[in-house]
Structure to design on (905 residues):
C-alpha cells in the first residue's frame, strides 16, 4: 500500500479512519518499544550502579583492612623494640616477624643518627637491595624518619621503585618508627613495605575475587597491582585515598564484568520478559481488534444485505407492536399502498390503507388478533386494501407473531401480496372456462334436441304413414265405394267410413303438427348451424388448451400438441369444433385416469388428410387426431360407441361422442377411431380446408 | 298414371316401425316394397350382382348405426347405379344441409321427416317413372346395339351413308358398287334394324 498523507481531504472517510487507526497502532507500538528500551536501559543502569556501589564498599573495606593491618604492624614493630633487645635477639625476632609478614621486605634497627644497628631481610626474596644498594634509599628513609621524629610516631616515605636482580622491580615505601626512651630519641625501626605485597596479603581475599586492586598515584600512575586475570571487558572502577602519615596513595579497584550480555541479571531479564509479555499481549489485542473489525464488517455486510433484501422484496412487509402500532414497513409495502413510511409508522387503527367502508370489520379483526384469541391461518387470508388514491385492491395477508430473542412476543409480522393481477388472470381464465362450458351445455342441448327430434320423428313418420295409407285404402276399396253408393241399405256405413277417414286425416295432421313443434324447437337450438368461418387449427387448439391443461395438471398428465407448419385454415363452426376437440381430449384423459395408466399423455395432432378423405373431390381436408395411451376400447363397446345415451361414465349423458359425430358430419367430415400403438386409442376427424387460405399451399 | 306392377321400392331404415309404415303406405298406393334394416344388408345385395330390370327407387334413411345413408349412397354411386336407382333421402331436421349436398351429387330428392306422406309417394312414383324410362332406354339401346351387331361390314357402310342423307346413286359411287346392290343392302339394313325409313333409322342411331 502506498503511503498517504493524513491531510489528503479527497480520501474516502473509510480510508482516513483506516489511516488514523494504523498510525495510532504505529504510535502505540513505538511508545511501547521506547518504554521497553528505557526500562531495559534503566534496569541496566540500576544494575551498574549496584555493582558500582558494591565496588565502592569493597574498596572501603579493602582500605580499612590495609589501615588496620598497617596499624597492627606498627604495634608489632614497637613490640620488637620492647625490653631492650640485643642485636642478636632483635635480628632473630625480626627474622621471625618477616616470616609472618610478607608485606615487609626488610627490617632495620637504626640509631638516632640513622646508622644501621641491625637488619633482617625477608626470607621470601633474595636480597632485595642487592641491585640498587640500600644507600640509595637513604633519602627516603631519612625523610620518613625526620617526619617520624617530628610527629613522634610512625611515618611513611613516598614510594619508590626498587629494581631487582631478575630485571623486574618492586614499588616499595619505607616506614620509620622512632624509638623514644624517657623522652629521649634512641633510635628508629625502619620497615620497608612492598606495595604489591600489601595488596596481596592485607586485603581480604574475598574482596579480590573478580576484581583488581591497585595502588596508584594521584595522577593515575599505577604503582602496584594485585588481581585475578581479566574477564570480559566492562570495567567498573572505584578509587579511595589511602592517607598515611608522610604518604598519600590512591587505592583503586577495578571490577570486570561480562559486558555484552543482553540480560545481565534477573531484574533486566524480568523487565525484558515482562516487555515480551506486553508485546505478546499487544499482538493478541491487535489480533482481537482485527477479528472484531472483521466481525463488525461482516455484521455491516449482513445488515446491508438484509436491507437490500427487504428493499428489493416484492412482498410487502409490516410489523406491528402489541398495541397495534406500525413499527416497520418495507418499501414494497409503501409502494403497494402508496403511502410513505413516515405516514405509516406509529399509526394505529384505523390504518390509512383501510377502505373506510370496511374499517369497522378490520378493526374487529385486528382486536381479535391483538387479543391473541385466534391464530392466523398459515396459508394466509385475503383482504381488500385501499391505495392512497382511493383505489381498492385485493391482498393476501400472511401473519405471524413476532417473537424476539428472549422468546417473548413483541408484536405481529405480516407479509402482503398484491393479488390483483392474479385475480385478473383467474377472472379471464374463469370467463373463458365459463364460455366453453356454456357452449358445451348448448352443444349438449342441441345434440339432445337433434336426437330427440330424430327419435320422435321416427314414430311420428310411422303414424303419419299408417294414417295416410289407411286413408288411401279407404278411398280405393271397391266394397266401400259400393257401400257408400246411393242405395239406402247401407246408409249408416258411409257415415262411419267418412268419420274414420276424417279421424285418420286428423291423426296424420296431429303427427305433422308434432313434427312441426319438434322442428321449431330444433331450429331454435340449432340457429348457429350455418356459421362457418375460416379458423387456423392452432387457434382452435389455443382456445381449448387452457381448460385441457388445467384438467391434465389436476390428473398429472402430459398434453402435447403437434401442428404442422404452414397448414391452411379450416372452414368450420368454431365453437362447435372446439367442443369436439374438448370432448375428445377429456375422454382421452378420463380413460387413462380410470385405468391408472403409468406415464399418461395425450397427443393432439393436426395434419393434412391423405386421399382417404370422403367424397368432395378438389377440396382439401385437415385431419385432427387425439391419441391417448389408455386401455383401448373393448369390441363390445366399440359397436355402441356412437349410440346416443350410451356411456361408460358414471356422470355422463352419453351425448359427447354422438355430438362430436353430428358436428363433424355437419361439416361434411368424418369421425372415426382406431387403436393406438402400443396401447390406447386414436380418434380422428376431418374438416374441410378454407379454399381461400389454401391457395398458396 | 298407373306405375308398372313389378316396380320395386327399396326401403333402408334402421327403425322397423318406420319401415313397416312406409311399406303399408306404399302398398295402399299399389306399390311393392322391399325393406332392409341396415346399409350393409343393401350393399350385400348390390354386391351379389344386382342389376335392376324393373323400375326401382330407394328410400334411404340418412342416420343409421353402422353404415350411414351417406356411405351407402357413395357405394351406389361407385357402382354407377345412381341413375337407375333413384335415391330419396329420408332426413331429420338436422341433416337437411347434408341431404341438400347429396341431391347436388346426384340423389333424386330428400324428404324431411315426418313427411307429407302422399307427396312422398308422388315423388316415389316420379322416381320409379324415371327409373323405368332409364331402364327402357337402356333396353332399347341394347336392342339397337344387338341389331347393329347383326349387320355385315358392307351393310354398315351403306347405313352410315344413308343416315348422312346421301341418295342411292351417290352411295353407289362412293362405295364403288352398283345402285342395285345399294338398294339390296339398304332394304336389308331397314329390315335388320326394324325401321321403315331413313329418318327413323337416324333417330334410333342417335339414341346410342
Amino acid at each position: 500500500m502506498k503511503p498517504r498523507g493524513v491531510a489528503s481531504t479527497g480520501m474516502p472517510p473509510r480510508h482516513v479512519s483506516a489511516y488514523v487507526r494504523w498510525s495510532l497502532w504505529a504510535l502505540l507500538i513505538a511508545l511501547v518499544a521506547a518504554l521497553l528500551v528505557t526500562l531495559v536501559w534503566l534496569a541496566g543502569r540500576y544494575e551498574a550502579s549496584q555493582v558500582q556501589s558494591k565496588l565502592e564498599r569493597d574498596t572501603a573495606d579493602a582500605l580499612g583492612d590495609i589501615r588496620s593491618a598497617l596499624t597492627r604492624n606498627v604495634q608489632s614493630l614497637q613490640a620488637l623494640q620492647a625490653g631492650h633487645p640485643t642485636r642478636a635477639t632483635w635480628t632473630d625476632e625480626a627474622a621471625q616477624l618477616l616470616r609472618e609478614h610478607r608485606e615487609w621486605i626488610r627490617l632495620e634497627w637504626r640509631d638516632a643518627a640513622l646508622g644501621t644497628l641491625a637488619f633482617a631481610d625477608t626470607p621470601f626474596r633474595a636480597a632485595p637491595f642487592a641491585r640498587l644498594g640500600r644507600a640509595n634509599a637513604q633519602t627516603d628513609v631519612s625523610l620518613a624518619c625526620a617526619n617520624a621524629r617530628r610527629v613522634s610516631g610512625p611515618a611513611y616515605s613516598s614510594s619508590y621503585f626498587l629494581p631487582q636482580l631478575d630485571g623486574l622491580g618492586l614499588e616499595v615505601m619505607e616506614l620509620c618508627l622512632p624509638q623514644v626512651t624517657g623522652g629521649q630519641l634512641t633510635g628508629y625501626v625502619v620497615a620497608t613495605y612492598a606495595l604489591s605485597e600489601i595488596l596481596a596479603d592485607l586485603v581480604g581475599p574475598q574482596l579480590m575475587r573478580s576484581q583488581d586492586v591497585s595502588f596508584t598515584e594521584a595522577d593515575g600512575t599505577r604503582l602496584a597491582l594485585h588481581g585475578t586475570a581479566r574477564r570480559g571487558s566492562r570495567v567498573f572502577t572505584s578509587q579511595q585515598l589511602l592517607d598515611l602519615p608522610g604518604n598519600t596513595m590512591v587505592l583503586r579497584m577495578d571490577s570486570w564484568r561480562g559486558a555484552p550480555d543482553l540480560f545481565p541479571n534477573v531484574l533486566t531479564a524480568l523487565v525484558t520478559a515482562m516487555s515480551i509479555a506486553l508485546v505478546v499481549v499487544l499482538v493478541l489485542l491487535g489480533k482481537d481488534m482485527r477479528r472484531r473489525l472483521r466481525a463488525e464488517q461482516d455484521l455491516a455486510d449482513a445488515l446491508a444485505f438484509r436491507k437490500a433484501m427487504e428493499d428489493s422484496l416484492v412482498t410487502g412487509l409490516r410489523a406491528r407492536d402489541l398495541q397495534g402500532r406500525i413499527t416497520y414497513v418495507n418499501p414494497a409495502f409503501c409502494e403497494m399502498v402508496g403511502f410513505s413510511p413516515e405516514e405509516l409508522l406509529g399509526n394505529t387503527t384505523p390504518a390509512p390503507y383501510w377502505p373506510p367502508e370496511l374499517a369497522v370489520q378490520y378493526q374487529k379483526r385486528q382486536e381479535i388478533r391483538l387479543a391473541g384469541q385466534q391464530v392466523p391461518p398459515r396459508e394466509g387470508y385475503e383482504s381488500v386494501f385501499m391505495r392512497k388514491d382511493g383505489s381498492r385492491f385485493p391482498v393476501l395477508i400472511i401473519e405471524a407473531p413476532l417473537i424476539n430473542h428472549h422468546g417473548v412476543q413483541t408484536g405481529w409480522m405480516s407479509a402482503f401480496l398484491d393479488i390483483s393481477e392474479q385475480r385478473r388472470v383467474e377472472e379471464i381464465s374463469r370467463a373463458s372456462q365459463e364460455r366453453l362450458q356454456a357452449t358445451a351445455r348448448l352443444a349438449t342441448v342441441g345434440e339432445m334436441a337433434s336426437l330427440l327430434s330424430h327419435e320422435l320423428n321416427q314414430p311420428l313418420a310411422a303414424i303419419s304413414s299408417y294414417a295416410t295409407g289407411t286413408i288411401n285404402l279407404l278411398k280405393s276399396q271397391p266394397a266401400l265405394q259400393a257401400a257408400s253408393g246411393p242405395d239406402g241399405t247401407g246408409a249408416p256405413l258411409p257415415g262411419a267410413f267418412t268419420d274414420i277417414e276424417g279421424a285418420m286425416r286428423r291423426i296424420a295432421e296431429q303427427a305433422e303438427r308434432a313434427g312441426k313443434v319438434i322442428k321449431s324447437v330444433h331450429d331454435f337450438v340449432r340457429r348457429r348451424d350455418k356459421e362457418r368461418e375460416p379458423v387456423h387449427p392452432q387457434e382452435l387448439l389455443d382456445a381449448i388448451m387452457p381448460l385441457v391443461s388445467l384438467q391434465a395438471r389436476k390428473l398429472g398428465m402430459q398434453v402435447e400438441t403437434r401442428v404442422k407448419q404452414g397448414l391452411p385454415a379450416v372452414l368450420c363452426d368454431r365453437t362447435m369444433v372446439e367442443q369436439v376437440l374438448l370432448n375428445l381430449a377429456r375422454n382421452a384423459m378420463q380413460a387413462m385416469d380410470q385405468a391408472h395408466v403409468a406415464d399418461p399423455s395425450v397427443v393432439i395432432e393436426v395434419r393434412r388428410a391423405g386421399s382417404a378423405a370422403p367424397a368432395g373431390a378438389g377440396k382439401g381436408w385437415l385431419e385432427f387426431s387425439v391419441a391417448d395411451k389408455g386401455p383401448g376400447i373393448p369390441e363390445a363397446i366399440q359397436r355402441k360407441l356412437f349410440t346416443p345415451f350410451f356411456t361408460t361414465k358414471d356422470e355422463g349423458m352419453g351425448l359427447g361422442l354422438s355430438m362430436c359425430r353430428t358436428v363433424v358430419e355437419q361439416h361434411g367430415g368424418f369421425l372415426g377411431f382406431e387403436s393406438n400403438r402400443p396401447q390406447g386409442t386414436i380418434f380422428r376427424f376431418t374438416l374441410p380446408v378454407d379454399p381461400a387460405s389454401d391457395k398458396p399451399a | 298414371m298407373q306405375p308398372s306392377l313389378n316396380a320395386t321400392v327399396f326401403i333402408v331404415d334402421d327403425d322397423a316401425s318406420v319401415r313397416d309404415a312406409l311399406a303399408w303406405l306404399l302398398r295402399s298406393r299399389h306399390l311393392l316394397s322391399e325393406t332392409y334394416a341396415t346399409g350393409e344388408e343393401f350393399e350385400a345385395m348390390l354386391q351379389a350382382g344386382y342389376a335392376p330390370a324393373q323400375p326401382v327407387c330407394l328410400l334411404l334413411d340418412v342416420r343409421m348405426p353402422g353404415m350411414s345413408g351417406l356411405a351407402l349412397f357413395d357405394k351406389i354411386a361407385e357402382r354407377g347405379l345412381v341413375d337407375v336407382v333413384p335415391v330419396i333421402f329420408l332426413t331429420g331436421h338436422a341433416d337437411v344441409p347434408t341431404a341438400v349436398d347429396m341431391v347436388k351429387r346426384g340423389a333424386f330428392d330428400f324428404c324431411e321427416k315426418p313427411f307429407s306422406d302422399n307427396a312422398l309417394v308422388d315423388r316415389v312414383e316420379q322416381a320409379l317413372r324415371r327409373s323405368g324410362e332409364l331402364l327402357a332406354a337402356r333396353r332399347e339401346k341394347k336392342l339397337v346395339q344387338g341389331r347393329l351387331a347383326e349387320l355385315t361390314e358392307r351393310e354398315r357402310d351403306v347405313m352410315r351413308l344413308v343416315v348422312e342423307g346421301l341418295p342411292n346413286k351417290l352411295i353407289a359411287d362412293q362405295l364403288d358398287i352398283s345402285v342395285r346392290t345399294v338398294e339390296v343392302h339398304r332394304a336389308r339394313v331397314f329390315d335388320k334394324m326394324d325401321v321403315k325409313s331413313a329418318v327413323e333409322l337416324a333417330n334410333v342411331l342417335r339414341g346410342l
